[in-house]
Specification:
This protein is of the alpha/beta class. It folds into 2 domains: 7-186, 3-Layer(aba) Sandwich (Adenoviral Proteinase, Chain), CATH 3.40.395.10; 206-240, no CATH class. Helix content is 36%, strand content 14%. The chain is built from 9 helices and 9 strands. The chain has helices spanning 12-17, 31-35, 45-59, 69-76, 81-93, 153-162, 172-186, 217-224, 233-238, and strands at 7-10, 28-30, 64-66, 96-101, 108-113, 118-122, 138-140, 206-207, 214-215. The two termini are 21 Å apart. The model has no long low-confidence stretch (mean pLDDT 89). The structure holds zinc ion (ZN) (2 copies). The site of one zinc ion (ZN) has 7 residues, from helix 8.
Length: 241
């Protein structure tokens, strides 16, 4: 498996600037994660979480917290005490709470506007779907774009967070391209991040002669026989990204 790993993005900055708990989110974007945004693929939950955080950052909304997809599932389907107490704190400290939910392989989204006391639940397949409301919030049904395929629910929930009019959203295939661009735009500086393991590169590292990505010492000996002139595996198999 290690041979197949290529770190092409790291979004620590986005998470840390928004004050997120780093233990809840996976900031590394492997090539496979990135490719989950290709046509007719289902995107991974880590990608959905990174994208929603990028959208929060871009929109300059203040006091917004986003749960992880697993936390969303634990909160609504498992009644998790830990997540309930996180929500309780968020309801007193935040103005908006975004909760992506992934019970098995279908994403849905809960959105709480704390200031307006509104609770909105979006199920990409269905109109006016409701789930258990959060205490003292008004359960509000909204019209939204209905998912017409079987694989774009993750994209749809990112779009529903971004758009003001939820019925008028860009086609998901187009939006996936926008998401790819955003991921590359908001990634940390990768100059000293190893292409293969995501570790920090120090003096013993080398750079790929084609793409310039760094490869640290242990990955150099593992993948490239300690060679000093390197064309990285990624450039060898599919050209530069
Ligand atoms: Zn490495
Ligand atoms: Zn390369």
């Amino acid at each position: 498996m290690r041979d197949k790993q290529f770190i092409i993005g790291v979004c620590n900055n986005v998470f840390s600037k928004l004050g997120c708990d780093p233990s809840k989110f996976w900031p590394f974007l492997d090539l496979v994660d990135f490719q989950s945004l290709d046509e007719r693929k289902e995107i991974y939950n880590s990608v959905v979480e990174i994208c929603i955080h990028i959208l929060i950052w871009e929109s300059k909304r203040q006091n917004v917290v986003c749960f992880s997809c697993v936390e969303g599932h634990q909160l609504f389907d498992k009644n998790s005490l830990e997540c309930k107490s996180k929500l309780k704190i968020a309801l007193t400290e935040c103005s908006q709470i975004i909760i992506p939910i992934l019970p098995s392989n279908h994403f849905t989204l809960a959105f709480i506007n704390v200031v307006e006391k509104q609770f909105i639940y979006i199920h990409p397949f269905r109109e006016n779907e409701k789930i258990r409301c959060i205490r003292r919030q008004h359960n509000l049904a909204v019209d939204h774009y209905i998912q017409v395929d079987t694989f774009n629910c993750g994209v749809n929930i990112c779009q529903s967070f971004q758009s003001a009019d939820l019925t008028e959203v860009e086609g998901p295939s187009e939006y996936k391209k926008t998401m790819k661009q955003k991921l590359m735009e908001f990634t940390d500086n990768l100059e000293n991040i190893c292409l293969h393991c995501g570790g920090v590169c120090n003096d013993g590292s080398v750079r790929c002669g084609d793409c310039g990505r760094s490869i640290n010492n242990s990955c150099r000996s593992y993948h490239y026989n300690n060679s000093n002139e390197i064309r990285c595996v990624l450039c060898q198999i599919r050209g530069n990204i």
